[in-house]
Amino acid sequence: MSSFDYVVLVLYLLLMLIIGWLSGRVGRGRDDYFLAGRGMGFIPIGLSVMVTSFSAINYVSIPNEVFSHGLYVIASFPVFFLVAYPISRWWIPYFWGLRVTSVYEFFELRFDRRVRHLASGMFLFWRFVWMSTVLYASGKIMQALTLFPLVSMILICGLVATLYTTWGGMRAVMFTDVAQFIVLFGGIALGVGLAFWEGGFDVIHQSAAGGRLRPFMPFDPDYLSFDPRHRMTLWSALIGVSVAFMSRYGADQVVMQRYFTAKDLASARRGLWLNAWVSVISLSLLSLLGLCVFSHACQTHGVDGVGMLELIRGGKVQPLDSLGRLICSFPVGVTGLVASGLMAATMSSIDSGLNSCVAAYVVDFGGSRDRSSWMVFVTGIAVTLLSLLMIPLSQASSGLFVVVNKLVNALGSPLLGMVLLGMFSRVVTDRGLLYGGVAGFFASLVISFFVKPLALQYYAVANLLATLLCCYVASAILKGNRARELPET
User: Is 135 within 8 Å of 346 (Cβ atoms)?
Assistant: First the structure.
């Protein structure tokens, strides 16, 4: 990276701090620090939801997936719209009308405080591990792509995100998310445009020759297989990703808190649909970037698409290294913008997680609202330190990263199962939801760690079904009180 690229990075970081500081100067009411005064429009809501769900891991994983396997992943893109309908139609009106701060407040309204504490505690554990993992993994990725020291990457992203979130609360989170979306999307679009300008038709030609346009060209019949052991099929993408996205948009405090910031119900709904459109466009560009990385790697190694395929199979070419070479080949300033996009993808996940975790703790467990900003700061420092601790642990155990990711991915479906039953079931009881939720939590861990021959996306489905079964069985055995009807809003 050139000196000007470093200037671009520094300017981006300063912009985030300035937005956080200015947001903190706005007068605070009771709902301001966690809900931005319930006055947000659909644009900041939609863009914030999008970048909140994005990290440097996502930024890199789509191009790497296309580089290594082809275009199989794009079958999951329509799921954004499939999931947006039920969330917009039922979830958002249901929870927005309750005027809650934490999603999990409704468990006490419907059942009792114990169920509320269980759901909120599961969320806090899930997201704390998730934030630490994202920060560590993103630091590793940025180290590989920019040659920055890993410790420096973790400290910069963790501390800057902690500072502006502490100063400005949810208002700072959402306004910085808008700025981060512009940096993130601009870096992706500019990178793809430059790569196609340089490679031209060779990008498509080399990708087709190397089989990177599969399963469409040539058509892969296994793509329509119903065998759940296949790595990725159309059905696993549609069904499995739908469950994972339902967990994200319908049971995760980090995302649902954005709905509660809306000035009216229409803004919350329109924000979700905006998120669906910009997510699909951004991921489509990242898929094209994967083809560009493949073509650029062919030029770098002096082979055609078939030759590159052999190098990939032999382990002689790695997708992350090839992506780094493409980024470093961009003109001065563009590399800095792309690196800023990687930082934006990471920091937008950390800031949202910090504010939402403290919101859940304060509201669900009775923490002091007056000390909210201090708790955000302490939580951010703890997340950053845990991410640094992962460096020696990962060197001592090569399986740590895989284990932690399985742990993170196992915890979304149990929360979704509890929310579904809490909203719609007339049979499940308070004791059934409490003890069944605990059983579903541990069953999901067992499935994620020990059930091997499943397509990756089906784990979310299996975990959801296990949780629903546990809650129904526990309700039948332990009896208890059924859900109370909520007043019309």
Answer: yes
